[in-house]
Amino acid sequence: MADYYQNGIITTLHNLADRPVEEMEAELCRFSQARPLGLVLPSLYSELQTPALPAIVEELAKVPYLSQVIIGLDRASREEYVHALAFFDQLPQHHRVLWHDGPRLRALDAELQARGLAPDQPGKGRNVWYCFGYAMATQRVEALALHDCDILTYDRSLLARLIYPVANPTFNYEFCKGYYARVAGGTLNGRVTRLLVTPLIRALKKIVPESDYLEFLDSFRYPLAGEFSFRLDVLNDLRIPSDWGLEIGVLAEMKRNYATNRLCQVDIADRYDHKHQDLSAGNDSGGLSRMSIDIIKAMIRKLATQGTVFSPGVLRTIKATYYRIALDFIETYRSDAIINGLDLDIHKEEKAVELFAENIIKAGNHFLDNPMETPFIPSWNRVLSAMPDVYDRLVDAVESDHKELAS
Fold first, then answer.
1. What is the pLDDT confidence band of residue 262, given thresholds at 50, 70 and 90?
2. What is the CB-side half-sphere exposure of residue 392 using CA atoms within 13 A?
3. Nearest Cα residue to 289 out of 367, 371, 353, 214
4. Could you give the 3-state DSSP secondary structure of residue 82?
């Protein structure tokens, strides 16, 4: 059972009583009468072939309070889009599949690209950005949740707990981050959070001790969780990274736009497992290596906007400080694993720390060599200002695809 400890400056909502999901859903149904609720599912077509997504959709079909489900579909041919329409048709809620690789959305994307208003690389950030735009365009809901499509341990209580803080009209939260313990297969998972993000934040706090941004990040129990919820008005001015820095970037935007008493985190699962990325040592374009570089860049960029000066010497200091702290964390995790009867491969843990330490220098050098880089996708407010009919055209493209190809 969870504790009730409040750490840092962000309100933590715990799972103290294993409340029945049916009880929460009854409340959410009442809340949804005044504040319609929706869900965003960013998905690769390949995830339709995995054990995770069919089970997720089966669970979602039982959810009574959703007014809209938005599925962002990447890497799908025409035939695969048709299959995806049939696959998601078991959802009783109003839903649409955004076929990002279809000719209509590609044409709109090309026009936005020409104006410098679209994501410049494929990935989850681009997928989520278009789904957010569609939610803004349709205005069917007033609050949204988002979660990944590779959760192997999914049940609908995860969604209920995730969306509850922004759905409850007596709460004032604009944004909620999910968290959970990453334990599966008899070992501790979540290497990037455990072995990179937390020790790197602690190292950076020694270099920039008065940073409210670092204190903010350090308050989240699982800052890389892909599950969060928000009121729809959050999306107006939200700028998100298009790379693996999405989750860290969203937190930075929440820090920029809202007081901390409008933000919270919630325990959404006793157990959580999903698709695991390879460490990809020697390949900075994939796996956890690329992920770590993008995350480090996102943190460096944010600190730079707050006046922190980076140089090769500062980067070497950060690397050395991080390395010592991360190694100490490994011993902490080893003790935690042993008392819980779990295995922890110390050699693999230290190999990961060594890779992440090297990537601090790589990410820092990339930042120093590309000072004019603008990795954020423009906010939808900016896009709407430059192209006033963009929402109508986005909805028309999605509806035309659906009308033409839905059986």
1. very high
2. 3
3. 353
4. helix
- Name the amino acid, one letter, at 42: P
Percent of the chain with pLDDT over 70: 96
Do 288 and 353 form a contact (C-beta atoms < 8 A)? no
Residue 108 near residue 393, CB atoms below 8 Å: yes
CA 75 to each of CA 51, 147, 165, 367: distance values in angstroms, whole numbers, following the listed order: 19, 19, 33, 30
Q: What is the pLDDT of residue 48?
A: 96
Q: How far apart are CA 369 and CA 364, in angstroms?
A: 9
d(CA 110, CA 106): 6
What is the 3-state composition of the chain as percent helix, strand, coil, each rounded to the nearest 5?
55, 15, 35
The pTM score is 0.94
CA distance 130 to 194: 31
Distance of alpha carbon 289 from the chain centroid? 18
Q: By mean pLDDT, which of 156-165, 278-287, 397-406 is the weakest?
A: 278-287
**Model confidence over 214-229: pLDDT tens digits?**
999 999 999 999 999 9
- Helix segments in 171-245, DSSP class H: 191, 198-207, 212-218
d(CA 246, CA 253): 10
Q: How far apart are CA 238 and CA 256, in angstroms?
A: 10
Helix (H) or strand (E) holding 315: helix 312-339
State the average pLDDT for the chain. 93
How much is the average pLDDT of 381-406? 96
